[in-house]
Amino acid sequence: MISNSYFLNVVRFILLVLVQVLVFNRLNFFGFINPMVYILFLYWYPIKENRAAFIGLAFLLGISIDFFSDSMALHAASTLTIAYMRPAIMRFVFGVNFEFQSFKLSNTTRIQQITFLTLLIIVHHLVFFTLEIFSLANFLLILKKVLATGAVTLILCLLFGSLFSVKKE
Amino acid sequence: MQQIIKFIIRYKNFLLYIFLMIVSIGFTIQSHSYHQSRFFNSSNWLTGNILETSNSVSTYFGLDTENQKLMDENRRLRDMLFNGGETDSIVLDSTQRMYTITTGRVIKNSFAEPRNYITIDKGEKDSIKGDMGVITSKGILGIVENTSNHFATVQSILNEQSNINAKIKNTNHFGSLVWNMKRYDVVQLIDIPRLVKLTVGDTIVTGGMSSIFPEGIPVGTIRKFDLNSSNSFYNIDVALFNDMTNIKNVYIVNNAFREEIKELENKSQSNDQ
Predict the structure, then answer these.
(1) Total structural domains within chain A
(2) What confidence tens digit (pLDDT) does each residue in B95-109 have?
(3) HEC sequence for A118-145
(4) Among A7, A112, B185, B260, which is disulfide-ready with A108 (CB 3.0 to 4.6 Å)?
Protein backbone atom coordinates (compact mmCIF):
# COMPACT_ATOMS: atom_id res chain seq x y z
CA MET A 1 0.00 0.00 0.00
CA ILE A 2 2.80 2.37 0.92
CA SER A 3 4.91 1.51 -2.12
CA ASN A 4 1.79 1.91 -4.21
CA SER A 5 1.35 5.47 -2.97
CA TYR A 6 5.02 6.26 -3.63
CA PHE A 7 4.72 4.89 -7.13
CA LEU A 8 1.59 6.92 -7.75
CA ASN A 9 3.31 10.11 -6.64
CA VAL A 10 6.37 9.51 -8.80
CA VAL A 11 4.21 8.90 -11.87
CA ARG A 12 2.17 12.00 -11.08
CA PHE A 13 5.32 14.07 -10.66
CA ILE A 14 6.74 13.07 -14.04
CA LEU A 15 3.45 13.35 -15.89
CA LEU A 16 2.62 16.76 -14.44
CA VAL A 17 6.08 18.14 -15.33
CA LEU A 18 5.78 16.86 -18.90
CA VAL A 19 2.21 18.08 -19.33
CA GLN A 20 3.19 21.47 -17.94
CA VAL A 21 6.26 22.06 -20.10
CA LEU A 22 5.07 20.42 -23.30
CA VAL A 23 1.46 21.57 -23.35
CA PHE A 24 0.53 24.31 -20.91
CA ASN A 25 3.68 26.41 -21.15
CA ARG A 26 2.92 26.83 -24.85
CA LEU A 27 -0.75 27.61 -24.54
CA ASN A 28 -0.34 31.42 -24.52
CA PHE A 29 -4.07 31.93 -24.26
CA PHE A 30 -4.90 35.59 -25.14
CA GLY A 31 -1.19 36.05 -25.63
CA PHE A 32 -0.10 35.72 -22.02
CA ILE A 33 -2.06 33.12 -20.05
CA ASN A 34 -0.07 29.96 -19.36
CA PRO A 35 -1.97 28.00 -16.71
CA MET A 36 0.08 26.08 -14.19
CA VAL A 37 -1.65 22.77 -13.66
CA TYR A 38 1.24 21.18 -11.79
CA ILE A 39 -0.18 22.76 -8.62
CA LEU A 40 -2.47 19.72 -8.60
CA PHE A 41 0.49 17.71 -7.31
CA LEU A 42 0.41 19.67 -4.09
CA TYR A 43 -3.37 19.43 -3.95
CA TRP A 44 -3.33 15.65 -4.32
CA TYR A 45 -0.30 14.88 -2.19
CA PRO A 46 -1.19 12.77 0.89
CA ILE A 47 -1.79 14.87 3.98
CA LYS A 48 -0.11 12.77 6.65
CA GLU A 49 3.25 12.44 4.95
CA ASN A 50 6.52 13.76 6.33
CA ARG A 51 6.38 17.51 5.95
CA ALA A 52 10.07 18.10 5.28
CA ALA A 53 9.99 15.56 2.45
CA PHE A 54 6.94 17.28 1.04
CA ILE A 55 8.68 20.68 1.02
CA GLY A 56 11.76 19.19 -0.61
CA LEU A 57 9.63 17.46 -3.22
CA ALA A 58 7.77 20.68 -4.02
CA PHE A 59 11.08 22.45 -4.52
CA LEU A 60 12.20 19.67 -6.85
CA LEU A 61 8.96 19.91 -8.82
CA GLY A 62 9.36 23.65 -9.25
CA ILE A 63 12.99 23.49 -10.22
CA SER A 64 12.36 20.78 -12.85
CA ILE A 65 9.80 23.01 -14.50
CA ASP A 66 12.24 25.94 -14.30
CA PHE A 67 14.80 23.88 -16.15
CA PHE A 68 12.48 23.57 -19.11
CA SER A 69 11.05 27.05 -19.20
CA ASP A 70 14.16 29.24 -18.65
CA SER A 71 12.46 30.96 -15.73
CA MET A 72 15.38 31.05 -13.27
CA ALA A 73 13.92 29.62 -10.03
CA LEU A 74 10.50 31.27 -10.12
CA HIS A 75 8.44 28.07 -10.17
CA ALA A 76 10.61 26.62 -7.42
CA ALA A 77 10.16 29.61 -5.12
CA SER A 78 6.39 29.79 -5.54
CA THR A 79 5.78 26.03 -5.31
CA LEU A 80 7.95 25.93 -2.21
CA THR A 81 5.86 28.65 -0.61
CA ILE A 82 2.55 26.90 -1.08
CA ALA A 83 4.07 23.61 0.08
CA TYR A 84 5.12 25.30 3.30
CA MET A 85 1.81 27.09 3.71
CA ARG A 86 -0.40 24.12 2.90
CA PRO A 87 -1.12 23.05 6.51
CA ALA A 88 -2.06 26.61 7.43
CA ILE A 89 -4.35 26.88 4.41
CA MET A 90 -5.92 23.51 5.22
CA ARG A 91 -6.55 24.53 8.81
CA PHE A 92 -8.23 27.67 7.50
CA VAL A 93 -10.43 25.82 5.01
CA PHE A 94 -11.29 22.59 6.84
CA GLY A 95 -11.09 23.79 10.44
CA VAL A 96 -9.60 21.50 13.09
CA ASN A 97 -11.10 18.52 11.27
CA PHE A 98 -8.08 17.91 9.14
CA GLU A 99 -5.88 16.99 12.07
CA PHE A 100 -7.93 13.87 12.80
CA GLN A 101 -6.59 10.54 11.62
CA SER A 102 -9.70 9.76 9.64
CA PHE A 103 -9.61 12.95 7.58
CA LYS A 104 -9.80 12.43 3.83
CA LEU A 105 -9.88 15.05 1.11
CA SER A 106 -12.62 13.12 -0.69
CA ASN A 107 -14.85 13.30 2.41
CA THR A 108 -15.00 17.07 2.42
CA THR A 109 -17.57 19.13 0.60
CA ARG A 110 -17.08 20.32 -2.95
CA ILE A 111 -17.02 23.95 -1.83
CA GLN A 112 -14.22 23.24 0.64
CA GLN A 113 -12.14 21.49 -2.00
CA ILE A 114 -12.55 24.36 -4.44
CA THR A 115 -11.66 26.95 -1.77
CA PHE A 116 -8.57 24.97 -0.84
CA LEU A 117 -7.44 24.75 -4.47
CA THR A 118 -8.22 28.44 -5.10
CA LEU A 119 -6.14 29.55 -2.12
CA LEU A 120 -3.21 27.40 -3.24
CA ILE A 121 -3.41 28.88 -6.74
CA ILE A 122 -3.70 32.50 -5.57
CA VAL A 123 -0.74 32.30 -3.20
CA HIS A 124 1.34 30.49 -5.81
CA HIS A 125 0.57 32.97 -8.58
CA LEU A 126 1.12 35.99 -6.33
CA VAL A 127 4.60 34.82 -5.41
CA PHE A 128 5.35 33.77 -8.96
CA PHE A 129 4.37 36.97 -10.76
CA THR A 130 5.73 39.26 -8.06
CA LEU A 131 9.14 37.63 -8.38
CA GLU A 132 8.88 37.49 -12.16
CA ILE A 133 8.08 41.15 -12.68
CA PHE A 134 10.06 42.17 -9.62
CA SER A 135 8.83 45.69 -9.13
CA LEU A 136 5.87 47.03 -7.20
CA ALA A 137 5.54 49.81 -9.77
CA ASN A 138 3.88 47.24 -11.99
CA PHE A 139 1.42 46.16 -9.33
CA LEU A 140 -1.56 46.35 -11.68
CA LEU A 141 0.22 44.17 -14.22
CA ILE A 142 0.95 41.64 -11.46
CA LEU A 143 -2.68 41.69 -10.35
CA LYS A 144 -3.96 41.28 -13.87
CA LYS A 145 -1.69 38.32 -14.50
CA VAL A 146 -2.55 36.69 -11.16
CA LEU A 147 -6.29 36.96 -11.74
CA ALA A 148 -6.34 35.96 -15.40
CA THR A 149 -3.87 33.08 -15.12
CA GLY A 150 -5.32 32.03 -11.76
CA ALA A 151 -8.83 31.73 -13.17
CA VAL A 152 -7.71 29.57 -16.08
CA THR A 153 -5.49 27.44 -13.83
CA LEU A 154 -8.42 26.88 -11.46
CA ILE A 155 -10.75 25.79 -14.24
CA LEU A 156 -8.19 23.42 -15.73
CA CYS A 157 -7.26 22.02 -12.32
CA LEU A 158 -10.92 21.33 -11.54
CA LEU A 159 -11.35 19.59 -14.89
CA PHE A 160 -8.22 17.50 -14.36
CA GLY A 161 -9.27 16.84 -10.78
CA SER A 162 -12.60 15.39 -11.83
CA LEU A 163 -11.04 13.46 -14.72
CA PHE A 164 -8.45 11.71 -12.57
CA SER A 165 -10.25 11.77 -9.26
CA VAL A 166 -8.54 10.00 -6.39
CA LYS A 167 -10.83 7.46 -4.80
CA LYS A 168 -8.70 6.12 -1.96
CA GLU A 169 -6.45 8.47 -0.06
CA MET B 1 23.51 23.70 23.17
CA GLN B 2 20.55 21.49 23.92
CA GLN B 3 18.36 24.52 23.51
CA ILE B 4 19.74 25.17 20.05
CA ILE B 5 19.24 21.57 18.95
CA LYS B 6 15.71 21.61 20.32
CA PHE B 7 15.07 24.82 18.44
CA ILE B 8 16.39 23.37 15.21
CA ILE B 9 14.31 20.20 15.56
CA ARG B 10 11.22 22.17 16.40
CA TYR B 11 11.51 24.57 13.51
CA LYS B 12 13.13 22.22 11.01
CA ASN B 13 10.39 22.66 8.41
CA PHE B 14 10.53 26.39 8.68
CA LEU B 15 14.33 26.41 8.43
CA LEU B 16 14.19 24.09 5.44
CA TYR B 17 11.67 26.40 3.80
CA ILE B 18 13.78 29.49 4.48
CA PHE B 19 16.89 27.79 3.19
CA LEU B 20 15.32 26.62 -0.09
CA MET B 21 13.61 29.98 -0.52
CA ILE B 22 16.90 31.82 -0.18
CA VAL B 23 18.44 29.47 -2.73
CA SER B 24 15.71 30.08 -5.29
CA ILE B 25 15.46 33.82 -4.70
CA GLY B 26 19.24 33.95 -4.94
CA PHE B 27 19.13 32.36 -8.39
CA THR B 28 16.32 34.65 -9.45
CA ILE B 29 17.93 37.89 -8.29
CA GLN B 30 21.31 36.94 -9.64
CA SER B 31 19.83 36.61 -13.11
CA HIS B 32 17.81 39.81 -12.70
CA SER B 33 20.90 41.85 -12.15
CA TYR B 34 23.29 39.93 -14.30
CA HIS B 35 22.31 37.47 -16.98
CA GLN B 36 20.28 34.36 -17.42
CA SER B 37 21.37 31.76 -14.91
CA ARG B 38 24.19 29.55 -16.05
CA PHE B 39 22.56 26.45 -14.61
CA PHE B 40 18.86 26.81 -15.17
CA ASN B 41 18.42 27.04 -18.87
CA SER B 42 16.80 24.78 -21.35
CA SER B 43 19.95 24.23 -23.40
CA ASN B 44 21.19 21.41 -21.19
CA TRP B 45 21.23 17.80 -22.32
CA LEU B 46 18.06 16.41 -20.72
CA THR B 47 15.70 19.30 -21.34
CA GLY B 48 17.15 19.93 -24.77
CA ASN B 49 16.49 16.38 -25.88
CA ILE B 50 12.96 16.22 -24.48
CA LEU B 51 12.06 19.53 -26.11
CA GLU B 52 13.58 18.38 -29.38
CA THR B 53 11.59 15.14 -29.36
CA SER B 54 8.38 17.02 -28.74
CA ASN B 55 9.35 19.48 -31.45
CA SER B 56 10.01 16.76 -34.00
CA VAL B 57 6.37 15.75 -33.64
CA SER B 58 4.87 19.22 -33.76
CA THR B 59 7.00 20.38 -36.71
CA TYR B 60 4.72 18.58 -39.13
CA PHE B 61 1.80 20.83 -38.34
CA GLY B 62 3.57 23.91 -39.62
CA LEU B 63 5.31 22.49 -42.70
CA ASP B 64 3.08 24.29 -45.17
CA THR B 65 3.64 27.80 -43.86
CA GLU B 66 7.35 27.12 -43.32
CA ASN B 67 7.78 25.95 -46.90
CA GLN B 68 5.97 29.03 -48.09
CA LYS B 69 8.30 31.28 -46.07
CA LEU B 70 11.40 29.58 -47.42
CA MET B 71 10.06 29.78 -50.99
CA ASP B 72 9.41 33.50 -50.54
CA GLU B 73 12.90 34.01 -49.28
CA ASN B 74 14.45 32.01 -52.09
CA ARG B 75 12.50 34.05 -54.58
CA ARG B 76 13.74 37.28 -53.03
CA LEU B 77 17.32 36.07 -52.99
CA ARG B 78 17.05 35.02 -56.63
CA ASP B 79 15.70 38.44 -57.46
CA MET B 80 18.72 39.98 -55.86
CA LEU B 81 21.06 37.57 -57.58
CA PHE B 82 19.66 38.23 -61.04
CA ASN B 83 19.06 41.95 -60.74
CA GLY B 84 21.75 43.09 -58.37
CA GLY B 85 24.65 42.58 -60.70
CA GLU B 86 26.94 42.41 -57.71
CA THR B 87 27.73 38.76 -58.11
CA ASP B 88 31.25 39.52 -59.31
CA SER B 89 32.27 41.15 -56.10
CA ILE B 90 31.28 38.30 -53.80
CA VAL B 91 34.37 37.13 -52.04
CA LEU B 92 34.47 33.36 -52.21
CA ASP B 93 37.33 32.88 -49.77
CA SER B 94 35.59 32.07 -46.51
CA THR B 95 38.46 33.46 -44.40
CA GLN B 96 37.84 36.86 -45.95
CA ARG B 97 34.14 36.96 -45.22
CA MET B 98 32.92 39.07 -42.38
CA TYR B 99 29.69 37.18 -41.66
CA THR B 100 29.09 33.46 -41.73
CA ILE B 101 25.58 32.02 -41.50
CA THR B 102 24.42 28.80 -39.85
CA THR B 103 20.85 27.54 -40.09
CA GLY B 104 18.96 26.23 -37.10
CA ARG B 105 15.52 25.28 -35.87
CA VAL B 106 13.59 26.59 -32.91
CA ILE B 107 12.74 23.82 -30.45
CA LYS B 108 11.28 26.04 -27.74
CA ASN B 109 9.84 29.50 -28.03
CA SER B 110 8.17 31.79 -25.52
CA PHE B 111 6.77 35.30 -25.82
CA ALA B 112 4.42 35.76 -22.87
CA GLU B 113 6.89 36.43 -20.08
CA PRO B 114 8.95 39.51 -19.26
CA ARG B 115 12.14 37.64 -20.14
CA ASN B 116 11.66 35.39 -23.12
CA TYR B 117 14.19 32.88 -24.33
CA ILE B 118 14.20 30.73 -27.43
CA THR B 119 16.00 27.39 -27.58
CA ILE B 120 17.53 26.28 -30.90
CA ASP B 121 18.91 22.92 -31.97
CA LYS B 122 22.45 24.09 -32.77
CA GLY B 123 25.21 24.31 -30.18
CA GLU B 124 28.95 24.34 -29.65
CA LYS B 125 29.39 21.34 -31.98
CA ASP B 126 28.14 23.62 -34.77
CA SER B 127 30.47 26.42 -33.63
CA ILE B 128 27.70 28.44 -32.04
CA LYS B 129 29.04 30.71 -29.32
CA GLY B 130 27.51 33.32 -27.04
CA ASP B 131 26.69 36.77 -28.47
CA MET B 132 25.97 35.65 -32.00
CA GLY B 133 23.00 37.25 -33.71
CA VAL B 134 19.92 35.20 -34.62
CA ILE B 135 17.63 36.27 -37.47
CA THR B 136 14.82 34.79 -39.54
CA SER B 137 13.98 35.37 -43.17
CA LYS B 138 11.78 38.29 -42.08
CA GLY B 139 13.87 40.07 -39.46
CA ILE B 140 15.86 39.91 -36.28
CA LEU B 141 15.06 37.52 -33.46
CA GLY B 142 17.65 37.82 -30.70
CA ILE B 143 21.15 37.09 -29.47
CA VAL B 144 22.66 33.73 -28.44
CA GLU B 145 23.16 33.61 -24.71
CA ASN B 146 24.05 30.13 -23.42
CA THR B 147 25.27 27.14 -25.37
CA SER B 148 25.67 23.44 -24.69
CA ASN B 149 27.06 20.78 -27.02
CA HIS B 150 23.96 20.47 -29.17
CA PHE B 151 21.68 23.31 -28.12
CA ALA B 152 21.72 27.04 -27.48
CA THR B 153 19.37 29.49 -25.80
CA VAL B 154 18.67 32.80 -27.48
CA GLN B 155 17.69 35.96 -25.65
CA SER B 156 14.68 37.06 -27.67
CA ILE B 157 14.15 40.73 -28.56
CA LEU B 158 11.04 40.27 -26.40
CA ASN B 159 13.16 40.40 -23.26
CA GLU B 160 13.34 43.30 -20.86
CA GLN B 161 17.13 43.01 -20.84
CA SER B 162 17.41 43.07 -24.61
CA ASN B 163 19.13 46.14 -26.02
CA ILE B 164 19.98 46.18 -29.70
CA ASN B 165 21.33 48.96 -31.87
CA ALA B 166 18.85 49.94 -34.59
CA LYS B 167 18.29 52.83 -36.98
CA ILE B 168 15.78 54.28 -39.37
CA LYS B 169 16.30 52.87 -42.82
CA ASN B 170 18.24 55.05 -45.25
CA THR B 171 19.33 57.47 -42.53
CA ASN B 172 22.08 57.29 -39.97
CA HIS B 173 19.98 58.16 -36.94
CA PHE B 174 20.33 55.25 -34.59
CA GLY B 175 18.85 54.34 -31.23
CA SER B 176 18.35 51.38 -28.91
CA LEU B 177 15.75 48.72 -29.40
CA VAL B 178 14.14 47.71 -26.08
CA TRP B 179 10.91 46.02 -25.01
CA ASN B 180 8.36 47.31 -22.49
CA MET B 181 6.95 43.82 -21.76
CA LYS B 182 3.47 44.73 -23.00
CA ARG B 183 2.78 43.34 -26.47
CA TYR B 184 4.58 40.52 -28.20
CA ASP B 185 4.33 42.15 -31.61
CA VAL B 186 5.60 45.60 -30.63
CA VAL B 187 9.05 46.70 -29.43
CA GLN B 188 10.31 50.22 -28.63
CA LEU B 189 13.05 52.23 -30.27
CA ILE B 190 14.42 54.92 -27.94
CA ASP B 191 17.06 57.63 -28.11
CA ILE B 192 16.17 58.90 -31.59
CA PRO B 193 16.70 62.68 -31.37
CA ARG B 194 13.79 65.05 -31.77
CA LEU B 195 15.05 66.73 -34.92
CA VAL B 196 14.61 63.58 -36.99
CA LYS B 197 11.55 63.62 -39.24
CA LEU B 198 9.48 60.46 -38.67
CA THR B 199 6.46 59.05 -40.45
CA VAL B 200 4.27 56.20 -39.33
CA GLY B 201 5.20 53.22 -41.49
CA ASP B 202 8.92 54.02 -41.78
CA THR B 203 11.10 50.93 -41.74
CA ILE B 204 13.49 50.26 -38.86
CA VAL B 205 16.60 48.17 -39.52
CA THR B 206 19.58 47.15 -37.40
CA GLY B 207 22.35 49.71 -37.21
CA GLY B 208 25.99 49.10 -37.90
CA MET B 209 27.11 50.10 -34.40
CA SER B 210 26.84 46.62 -32.91
CA SER B 211 29.31 43.92 -33.75
CA ILE B 212 26.58 41.28 -33.49
CA PHE B 213 24.23 41.99 -36.39
CA PRO B 214 25.16 43.09 -39.89
CA GLU B 215 23.80 46.49 -40.83
CA GLY B 216 20.37 46.65 -42.41
CA ILE B 217 18.60 43.53 -41.11
CA PRO B 218 14.89 44.46 -41.05
CA VAL B 219 13.22 44.87 -37.66
CA GLY B 220 9.77 46.36 -38.25
CA THR B 221 7.82 49.48 -39.13
CA ILE B 222 6.95 52.52 -37.02
CA ARG B 223 3.53 52.06 -35.47
CA LYS B 224 3.37 55.28 -33.50
CA PHE B 225 5.80 57.70 -31.91
CA ASP B 226 5.83 60.45 -29.28
CA LEU B 227 8.38 62.49 -27.36
CA ASN B 228 9.75 61.18 -24.09
CA SER B 229 9.48 62.99 -20.75
CA SER B 230 12.50 65.22 -21.38
CA ASN B 231 11.05 66.24 -24.76
CA SER B 232 14.32 65.73 -26.56
CA PHE B 233 14.10 62.14 -27.75
CA TYR B 234 11.39 60.08 -29.40
CA ASN B 235 9.83 56.94 -28.00
CA ILE B 236 8.90 54.92 -31.05
CA ASP B 237 6.65 51.85 -31.11
CA VAL B 238 7.90 49.43 -33.72
CA ALA B 239 5.58 46.75 -35.13
CA LEU B 240 7.77 43.71 -35.77
CA PHE B 241 8.01 42.04 -39.17
CA ASN B 242 8.47 38.70 -37.44
CA ASP B 243 5.46 36.95 -36.01
CA MET B 244 7.15 36.05 -32.75
CA THR B 245 4.53 33.40 -32.02
CA ASN B 246 5.29 31.41 -35.14
CA ILE B 247 9.00 30.84 -35.73
CA LYS B 248 10.65 27.69 -36.99
CA ASN B 249 13.74 28.18 -39.15
CA VAL B 250 16.38 30.65 -38.05
CA TYR B 251 19.80 31.81 -39.22
CA ILE B 252 22.64 32.33 -36.78
CA VAL B 253 25.00 35.10 -37.84
CA ASN B 254 28.62 35.02 -36.78
CA ASN B 255 30.76 38.11 -37.16
CA ALA B 256 34.30 36.85 -37.73
CA PHE B 257 35.80 40.14 -36.63
CA ARG B 258 33.80 40.49 -33.45
CA GLU B 259 36.66 39.46 -31.17
CA GLU B 260 38.93 41.94 -32.86
CA ILE B 261 36.41 44.78 -32.57
CA LYS B 262 35.72 43.99 -28.91
CA GLU B 263 39.39 43.87 -28.10
CA LEU B 264 40.02 47.20 -29.75
CA GLU B 265 37.09 48.82 -27.96
CA ASN B 266 38.23 47.51 -24.61
CA LYS B 267 41.70 48.83 -25.23
CA SER B 268 40.39 52.29 -26.07
CA GLN B 269 38.18 52.30 -23.00
CA SER B 270 41.00 51.34 -20.68
CA ASN B 271 43.10 54.11 -22.22
CA ASP B 272 40.48 56.61 -21.12
CA GLN B 273 40.72 55.72 -17.49
Answers:
(1) 1
(2) 566 788 888 889 888
(3) HHHHHHHHHHHHHHHHCCHHHHHHHHHH
(4) A112
